[in-house]
Design a protein that fits this description.
312 residues, Rossmann fold, L-2-Hydroxyisocaproate Dehydrogenase, Chain A, domain 2, 2 domains, six-stranded parallel beta sheet, 9 helices
């Protein structure tokens, strides 16, 4: 039977992975393959999603697998696989463990889908997407990380709440590193209905929103007690997949390889980019005030230090 739909593989079928699959299917974007090392888990989640299809009228294939053969000829591959930092685990330990996972996954999926786009979600994100780029040998425009696409939606949510307006009228982005301490919410560029945010809220309230945005993931972890966010990360993945598959030319903040932009070379950093069928088709120059530029430079320095720990 000939393929009639695009094909998206998600490696890592935990909460983020299966929620991304649900959003992708709900938006009628592609057939989905869920891959995980846990025996039976991706198969069970795939079957559960498939059984919801008659209710939603979704004529898409959903496949679960513990291997990679089912991923062959994927159009987009999302790498979520990895572990969260555990008590007593150093930053270097986390990086080394997840680097081994991302390296192995990248080797497996790219040889089966040499024309795919790679979206990396595994943390520490900007370092892992750099590794995936080096291991895959893919052109940089086809390898990217989900960073500001998630962080920005939190920023927009908090602004909308503060002003009691629709989130659709809030334009705001987060760049820099995908971490609590080194993401850079660009309050200087944020607007509501075209009106600068700084004309609508006092500086101290904006500062509180910026700080809450930086702690957005940690806030959810603290409330859940076990586990971390998955609804918003899954939706952010689907947004990126949609931009690629439908050639939407969306301007989204994501982790892209810089080749001189912002004074940075051969490093993956969160920046605004045009995302379409060609992948990262163009990187945009976001103006920053002095404090934001200082924070961005600090983020770049941290990413560079972590990349230096990789064995590539």
């Amino acid at each position: 039977m000939a393929r009639t739909h695009a094909k998206v593989t998600i490696v890592g079928a935990g909460n983020v992975g299966h929620t991304a699959a649900q959003w992708i299917l709900g938006h009628r974007l592609a057939d989905v393959v869920l891959v995980d090392v846990v025996e039976g888990m991706p198969q069970g989640k795939a079957l559960d999603l498939l059984e919801a299809a008659p209710i939603e009228g979704l004529d898409f294939r959903v496949t679960g697998s513990n291997g990679y053969d089912e991923t062959t000829q994927s159009d987009v591959i999302v790498i979520v696989a990895g572990i969260a930092r555990k008590p007593g685990m150093s930053r270097e330990d986390l990086l080394a463990t997840n680097a081994g996972i991302v390296r192995g996954v990248t080797e497996q999926v790219t040889k089966r889908s040499p024309a795919a786009h790679l979206i990396v979600v595994t943390n520490p994100l900007d370092v892992m997407v750099y590794l995936a780029h080096k291991v895959s040998g893919f052109p940089a425009e086809r390898v990217m990380g989900q960073s500001g696409a998630l962080d920005s939606t939190r920023f927009r949510t908090f602004i909308a709440q503060a002003l009691s307006v629709s989130v659709q009228d809030v334009s705001a982005m987060v760049i820099g590193a995908h971490s609590d301490t080194h993401m850079v919410p660009l309050a200087s560029l944020a607007t509501v209905g075209g009106i600068p945010l700084r004309r609508l809220l006092p500086a101290e309230q904006i500062a509180a929103i910026v700080e809450r945005t930086r702690r957005g993931g940690a806030e959810i972890v603290g409330l859940l007690k076990t586990g971390s966010a998955f609804f918003a990360p899954g939706a952010a993945i689907a947004q990126m997949v949609e931009a690629i598959l439908l050639d939407r030319k969306r301007v989204l903040p994501l982790s892209a390889r810089l080749t001189g932009q912002y004074g940075v070379r051969d490093l993956y950093v969160g920046v605004p980019a045009v995302l379409g069928t060609g992948g990262v088709e163009r990187i945009l120059d976001a103006p920053m005030d002095d404090a934001e530029r200082k924070a961005f430079d600090a983020a770049v320095a941290t990413i560079r230090e972590n990349v230096a720990l990789l064995k590539v």
